[in-house]
Write a structure and sequence with these properties.
The protein is of the alpha+beta class. The protein has two domains: 36 residues, no CATH class; 46 residues, no CATH class. The chain has three helices and two strands, in the order H-E-H-E-H.
């Protein structure tokens, strides 16, 4: 997003609505061409997550740079940030 905002690349796909205000040089094209499904992988069975706040009792891992995950977990006390999804999944499988 930073590169697009600075004119280094022509544009991006996969951005959440709420970050558009942080990048004033970018124009949103309102035609959807893809979508993102957020999912939860858990070492605990029968976890029912309907909204971001439902993650609060858990230690949550996210991948650095995935903005919708960063926003969803911003206020959670037990967040861990990983550089890759592989490292995150390795931590989860060790639980």
């Amino acid at each position: 997003m930073k590169q697009s905002n600075q004119g280094e690349v022509d544009g991006e796909v996969h951005r959440v609505w709420s970050i558009a205000n942080s990048y004033p040089n970018l124009f949103r094209v309102p035609t959807p061409i893809n979508y993102i499904d957020q999912v939860v992988f858990s070492s605990v069975q029968n976890v029912d997550i309907k909204q971001c706040a439902d993650l609060a009792p858990y230690t949550v891992g996210i991948v650095r740079g995935v903005k919708h995950a960063e926003e969803c977990t911003r206020d959670l006390p037990l967040q861990r940030v990983f550089n890759t999804s592989a490292k995150m999944m390795t931590m989860l499988s060790a639980q």
